């Protein structure tokens, strides 16, 4: 079934601003914010709690089964620090948020992250791990890298995604009309 509204992933290293972007975008557009962390917890898509990393050990198969009915009709903003597990057919746009390492250090320190997790996340951001994962997993034309160091950048990002959404809907309405 063709989607009448797109599915968007907002991804990036923990602390880049995924949740902040998703909440604002959902408020402005009416798209549904799917926090994968919440789904993992509420639908029990995990194999227990990792004490060292202070996070759930995700069961990806269970997670995909839980999410499939949610994304089927489109209109979802998927909020998670990974993107390569989601089937290409689900996704219309992948936004990879980026921040400077000093900004990320400050944000993660403020959250009192365990040292090992803080260092790994900083390394991951510097090495562009999530950006590369997105580029390896999806067509290059649907992957967008956006900076998220300040409130101004976040506003600009939301404006850009809103414009993209409007265009997507226009393009897909035309295709729907041509098909009928
Ligand atoms: N563009 C931004 N400008 C200024 N502060 C920001 C920006 N984006 C996020 N922040 C702040 O950084 C912190 C982390 O943001 P947020 O929780 O949205 O990140 P996240 O990527 O969703 O993290 P996680 O993956 O751990 O859920 C919050 O305190 C938030 O207010």
UniProtKB/TrEMBL annotation:
Residues 110-120 are annotated as: LID. The keyword Lipoprotein does not apply. Keywords: ATP-binding, Cytoplasm, Hydrolase, Kinase, Nucleotide-binding, Nucleus, Ribosome biogenesis, rRNA processing, Transferase. It is found in: Cytoplasm; Nucleus. Its main location: cytoplasm. It catalyses: AMP + ATP = 2 ADP; ATP + H2O = ADP + phosphate + H(+). Residues 35-58 are annotated as: NMPbind. Pfam families: AAA_18. ATP binds at residues 15, 17-20, 111. InterPro entries: Adenyl_kinase_AK6, P-loop_NTPase. GO terms for cellular component: cytoplasm; nucleus. GO terms for molecular function: AMP kinase activity; ATP binding; ATP hydrolysis activity. Its EC number is 2.7.4.3. Broad-specificity nucleoside monophosphate (NMP) kinase that catalyzes the reversible transfer of the terminal phosphate group between nucleoside triphosphates and monophosphates. Has also ATPase activity. Involved in the late cytoplasmic maturation steps of the 40S ribosomal particles, specifically 18S rRNA maturation. While NMP activity is not required for ribosome maturation, ATPase activity is. Associates transiently with small ribosomal subunit protein uS11. ATP hydrolysis breaks the interaction with uS11. Interacts with small ribosomal subunit protein uS11. Not a structural component of 43S pre-ribosomes, but transiently interacts with them by binding to uS11. Belongs to the adenylate kinase family. AK6 subfamily. This is Adenylate kinase isoenzyme 6 homolog. It comes from Bombardia bombarda. The lineage of its organism: Eukaryota, Fungi, Dikarya, Ascomycota, Pezizomycotina.
